[in-house]
Structures are given as C-alpha cells and as structure tokens.
C-alpha cells in the first residue's frame, strides 16, 4: 500500500487538483458540469431490469453516539388525540441539521473552506447568517442524473465491513474496478462502500470523531481528479477518520468540495445496492437524486436511487 502523504504533499496536491476557473470565474456548479445531456441519456440505457434501490438511511430521529442532534419530528395534527371526534387529516413537522454522521445528505460547495475560500475562489464571507450567496445547494435544483458506479471495498476484501480508521488507497480503487469489471469515467457518480452502515446495524452506533471511521486516504484525491467524477458518495463521510494529519483533518472533503468542486453524499446506505450489484454481476447503473431546493442552503437531506 502507498505511504501516507505529508502536510506539504497534501497542500501541493490541492494545487494540482484545483478546478477553479475551469468552467469560468463565476461558475458555482463545479464538477456537475461534467454531466452532459449525452451523459444522462447514455446512463438511462443502463437500465436492464428496472430494479430500484434506495441508497439512503431513514432520518435519524433518535439520539445516538453518532447523532447528537437528532431530527425533530413533531405531529401538528393527528386523527384522534385532543379531539372528541376524529379529524379528516394528519400533519407533522420536521427539523433537521443535515450535516454530521447520521443522516444521508448532499454537501453543497459552500460547505467547506480552505484558506478562507470556497470552491472557485469565492470568499468564505459569502456565507453568512442568512445562508450562502455562492455555491448553495440549490445549484442542484434540476436534479443529479448520471451513470452511477459502486466500488465495494468490503466485498473486494472479502469482509462484511471495514473497521474504523481503515483507509483506502488509490491502488485499491484500481483493484475494485478490475474485480467489478467497471471503469470510473468522466461525469460518473462514484459510490465507495466501506460497510459502515452494515457494521452499525450489527454492532450499534459509535462516535466516529472519537473512535474513527473507514474512508479514503488523501492520496486518492489525484485519482478522483483524473477520473473527472461529478459526485462522490460514501456510506461514511468519504474521509478516513482520523486522517493521520492534524493539519488536514478532512483532506477528501476539502480536496473534492473546495478544490475540485465535487458535491459529496455522506452517510448513505449501500448494503442493498452491494447485494443487488453482486447478484446482477454489474456495478454500473442509472443514478438519480433530487436534492431539496433550499436557496442559500449548505446541504440537503437526500434519498439517492440506483436503477439497475
């Protein structure tokens, strides 16, 4: 396996993988520009059986070690409580802090900063108390539809899951491609399975900020940049935790979101997709996701879907 990068190496790599200005100095969509109409049309042709697989966890309404701010779910009207006779409708109220390690969400390009800048060189000061004036989540209002590719690292390792702190190096991404008979291409939505959701179901929740979480080593950034992916998804948070570098605690988040302009899906659930891909013998599919249109938002809860 490759050696871990030094702080200087990571800083140099950030400069190498930068997409700032690639689509113009005012661009706020980043790597979503890799998804063309032709790419979407080609992705639609990947559907063979029509099987649809959700890639999201249920909204986490119960506090847990990895969920200190659970989703608030309140009923504003029910069918019988506080009524002498039944009412003809019910209603509820949700409040959610999407970031963190509990809910499946899409990070906007305004979510992370490096040296006071967000993607494309926009100032971090563009994000204030009223939200983000640049690179907010509503740039995805048309939805994200493209070819999806799953690289299933636990299946490659012949294990149920990766352990907290286990890291994935570029060589293993290459090996997963070869084992799965697939090649990550320009405009793809790349999903990297670590098995975190499977481990959590089997053993219960833990605090990734203290215990650790499996994920990509910083050395994968150049690989991701060379493949020109449009979106990166993980059943954890993409970054291995701890990163092993105090100067760069989240190099994958910074490198993809800030420098490359790649939106990230955190805390997905790829277990059902892993089984479906293994049964079908193919690891490419039509990927579809429609984030909420939250103007000036830094993220959206999402329910991505793979259609085989």
Strand tally is: 15
Amount of helix: 10-25%
**Count of DSSP-assigned helices:** 9
Q: Major sheet, described briefly?
A: 9 strands, mixed
Strand content: 15-25%
Approximate shape:
globular
Structure description:
With 308 residues, this protein is α/β, with parallel strands linked by helices. The chain has a single domain (7-58, 98-307), classed as Glucose Oxidase, domain 1, CATH 3.50.30. 24% of the residues lie in helices and 19% in strands. The chain contains nine helices and 15 strands. The strands form four sheets. Strands 1-15-13-7-9-11-12-4-14 form a nine-stranded mixed sheet, sandwiched between helices. A two-stranded antiparallel ribbon has the order 2-3. The longest helix has 11 residues, at 7-17. The chain is globular and about 70 Å long. The two termini are 33 Å apart. The mean pLDDT is 96.
Describe the secondary structure blueprint for this structure.
Elements: H1 7-17, H2 37-44, E1 52-54, E2 72-77, E3 91-95, E4 105-107, E5 127-128, E6 131-132, E7 144-152, H3 153-157, E8 167-168, H4 170-180, E9 189-193, H5 196-203, H6 208-211, E10 215-216, H7 221-227, E11 231-234, H8 251-260, E12 263-266, H9 271-280, E13 284-289, E14 299-301, E15 305-307
Helix pairs in contact: 1-7, 1-8
Describe this structure in a few short sentences.
The chain is an alpha/beta fold.
């Amino acid at each position: 396996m490759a050696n871990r990068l030094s702080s200087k190496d990571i800083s140099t790599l950030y400069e190498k993988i930068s997409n700032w200005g690639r689509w113009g100095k005012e661009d706020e969509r980043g790597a979503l520009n890799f998804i063309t109409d032709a790419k979407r049309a080609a992705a639609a042709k990947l559907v063979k059986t029509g099987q649809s697989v959700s890639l999201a966890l249920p909204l986490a309404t119960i506090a847990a070690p990895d969920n200190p701010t659970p989703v608030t779910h309140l009923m504003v009207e029910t069918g019988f409580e506080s009524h002498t006779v039944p009412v003809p409708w019910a209603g509820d109220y949700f409040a959610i802090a999407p970031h963190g390690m509990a809910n499946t969400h899409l990070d906007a390009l305004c979510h992370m900063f490096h040296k006071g800048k967000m993607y494309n060189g926009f100032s971090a000061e563009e994000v204030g108390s009223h939200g983000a004036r640049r690179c907010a989540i509503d740039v995805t209002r048309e939805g994200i539809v493209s070819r999806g590719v799953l690289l299933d690292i636990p299946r490659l390792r012949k294990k149920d899951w990766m352990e907290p702190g286990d890291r994935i190096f570029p060589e293993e991404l290459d090996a997963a491609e070869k084992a799965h008979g697939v090649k990550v291409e320009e405009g793809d939505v790349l999903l990297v399975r670590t098995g975190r959701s499977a481990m959590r179901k089997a053993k219960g929740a833990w605090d990734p900020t203290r215990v650790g979480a499996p994920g990509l080593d910083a050395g994968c950034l150049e690989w991701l940049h060379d493949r020109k992916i449009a979106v990166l998804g993980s059943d954890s948070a993409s970054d291995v935790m701890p990163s092993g570098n105090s100067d760069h605690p989240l190099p994958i988040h910074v490198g993809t979101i800030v420098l490359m302009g790649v939106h990230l899906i955190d805390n997905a659930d790829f277990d059902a997709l892993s089984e479906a891909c293994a049964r079908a013998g193919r690891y490419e599919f039509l990927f579809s996701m429609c984030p909420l249109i939250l103007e000036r938002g830094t993220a959206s809860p999402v329910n991505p879907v793979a259609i085989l």
